[in-house]
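Design review, sub-item: ligand-bound model
Attendees: FS, YL, KQ
YL presented the inputs for the 5-O-phosphono-beta-D-ribofuranosylamine complex:
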Amino acid sequence: MGNLEQQKTPKPGKLGLAVLISGRGSNLQSIIDACRIDNFPAQINLVLSNTPDAYGLVRAKENDISTRIVSHKDFETKADFETEILSILDEFNIDLVCLAGFMRILSPTLITPWEGRIINIHPSLLPKYKGLHTHQRAIEAGDTESGCTIHYVTPGVDEGEIILQKSVPIIDGDTADSLAARVLTQEHIAYPEAIRIIAQKHHSLS
Ligand code: GRF
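KQ shared the predicted structure:
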């Protein structure tokens, strides 16, 4: 059996993940690294990008993970774009969809069939700073801390139930970039931890 086929076959006890990306994929990398740990309760069965040149696709290929590109630009409607993603998700034994820097706002077309099984990482301490430019907004507000949130995805943007948060201090002289870098190190810890939490729940239900 080739590597790609193996990834489609769920290992007993492991959650099958689809990771959806749009760019750099550093959070994807943190999940790839976690999945290399023997007792990590998940494996990545699919990396899907809506942009063909996302560096995360290179990371996936280097790790023999199946990739798909679904460009939103190829579809007339968001519903058509999301229907295509749904049908691809059906091809790979997916238990949990992980949005990791996926820069499209999803509609109920995709969210409803996956509700409770789709999560996102957001670079702020939700409910503060939903949407974009979170670091600049936290600095401008004079906040003394920021961080990241992993949450379930619901049709309300950045509104679903929180799974976990990690905070970092905001330091005098911080710029959006320096704060983003500090938060990102916590994102890379948070995503694998959130997957572990969900896997534990999943196993206690099954
Ligand atoms: C991260 O900061 C994530 O919180 C946000 O987009 C960024 C993606 O970074 N949603 P990467 O592609 O995982 O490196």
